[in-house]
């Protein structure tokens, strides 16, 4: 579908919205026309909150998650277990794990995973800073929570090899049948792993 | 799902994106984090194209569609049939009809339809300007292309009554079975209307 907009301003705004992930031309037009229905202050608030995020957001100097301050609220919290560090790919994963309410340790955001195809090597990621962080002594366990893909496995293995000399305990997330899922609909790889890594029954 | 963001800047940007139509919290987070991956110029371009739309866009003084100029490209075109005026609810409808490539007349954007529930009366819409436009003489046919809802029907009827004294021809879009649709899946009201308003067979 090609739309011939009666206004270059409209056309530009539609293109801007259509550049967002998951937004097509029709939704983008709806968004642009929606902006025209808002007050000038509302539009100003909308655009400035996005501009400010880009201009003012920092990354925590310890765990590299997004933060307004030099040290993020998680790293600077006094109630969190500083001996545990969970290694994740990106900021979204931090929020997802936080959301479970089951984790009280710290994080380390790599900013990606090793991917030779995309030309991402260990030097492009926050791996050296993780090794230094562990070497500084306070950390006793590193939990690997990277995706279960070829790239994730490669990154896990690389980090494991780099951490080995330090003697720190390295664990990874349990993989198995999702809670509430029927065995029938669980994929074979997951089910196979869940048999190999079975855990003692606790009532 | 409640996400506790480690950054107020991030949280504000997520709220901004989540205020767009059809965007949930998870997509909004993806959009906000996506902004962080863009260059500063790209983000500036994104926000300024939206801000400019709001600040600089005009509405055509004749047909009230969105336009960069006082008179929109459609109204100022010399190749369009100025005796035909198609009455639509909003700018999106103009684009949708333009997209068919089947219409060469002009438009009149009401800016809404009569809706007592939402407190929208004829005075809130561009109806008076339509009557004046028709009274000025050039228009010979007004095509009503409003939605087939109670409000659309009310607005159609109101406009028809206001236009009656001028003697202008008033038509409406053909309603019937969609091209390519099976009778079996056509709703009864549409099918019923398509029988009543059947047209001569042309080979």
Walkthrough of the structure:
The first copy, chain A, is of the alpha/beta class. Chain A folds into two domains: 8-56, Orthogonal Bundle (Helicase, Ruva Protein, domain 3), CATH 1.10.8.420; 59-200, Dna Topoisomerase Vi A Subunit, Chain: A, domain 2, CATH 3.40.1360. In chain A, 43% of the residues lie in helices and 10% in strands. Chain A has helices at 8-18, 25-37, 40-56, 73-76, 91-100, 127-135, 150-163, 188-196, and strands at residues 58-59, 66-67, 84-88, 106-109, 141-144, 169-172. In chain A, α1 crosses α2. The first copy, chain A, is globular and about 65 Å long. The model of chain A has no long low-confidence stretch (mean pLDDT 90). Chains A and B meet through α1, α2, α3, β2 and α5 of A and α1, α2, α3, β2 and α5 of B.
Helical content of chain A (DSSP H or I, runs of 4+): 40-55%
Q: How many H/I helical runs of chain A?
A: 8
Classify the beta-strand content of chain A into a percent band: 5-15%
Number of domains of chain A: 2
Mean pLDDT of chain A: 90
Low-confidence stretches of chain A: none
Structural class estimated from helices and strands of chain A: alpha/beta
Which CATH C-level class of the largest domain in chain A is it? Alpha Beta
CATH fold description of the largest domain in chain A: Dna Topoisomerase Vi A Subunit, Chain: A, domain 2
Shape of chain A: globular
Largest interface: A-B, 60 and 60 residues
The largest pleated sheet of chain A is described as: 4 strands, parallel
Instruction: Identify the CATH architecture of the largest domain in chain A.
Output: 3-Layer(aba) Sandwich
Strand order of the largest sheet of chain A: 4-3-5-6
N- to C-terminal separation of chain A? 59 Å
Oligomer classification: homodimer
Gyration radius of chain A (Cα, Å) is: 22 Å
């Amino acid at each position: 579908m090609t739309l011939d907009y009666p206004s270059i301003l409209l056309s530009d705004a539609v293109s801007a919205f259509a550049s967002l992930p998951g937004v097509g031309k029709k939704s983008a037009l709806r968004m642009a026309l929606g902006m025209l229905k808002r007050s000038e202050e509302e539009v100003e608030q909308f655009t400035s909150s996005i501009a400010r995020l880009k201009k003012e957001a920092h990354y925590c100097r310890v765990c590299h998650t997004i933060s307004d301050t030099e040290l993020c609220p998680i790293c600077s919290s006094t109630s969190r277990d500083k001996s545990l560090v969970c290694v994740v790919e990106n900021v979204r994963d931090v929020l997802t794990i936080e959301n479970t309410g089951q984790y009280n340790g710290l994080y380390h955001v790599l900013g990606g995973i090793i991917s030779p195809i995309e030309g991402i090597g260990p030097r492009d990621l926050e791996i050296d800073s993780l090794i230094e962080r562990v070497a500084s002594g306070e950390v006793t366990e590193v939990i690997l929570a990277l995706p279960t893909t070829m790239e994730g496995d490669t990154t896990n293995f690389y980090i494991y090899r780099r951490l080995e000399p330090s003697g720190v305990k390295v664990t990874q997330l349990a993989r198995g049948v999702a809670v509430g899922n029927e065995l029938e609909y669980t994929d074979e790889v997951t089910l196979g792993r869940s048999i190999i890594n079975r855990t003692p029954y606790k009532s």
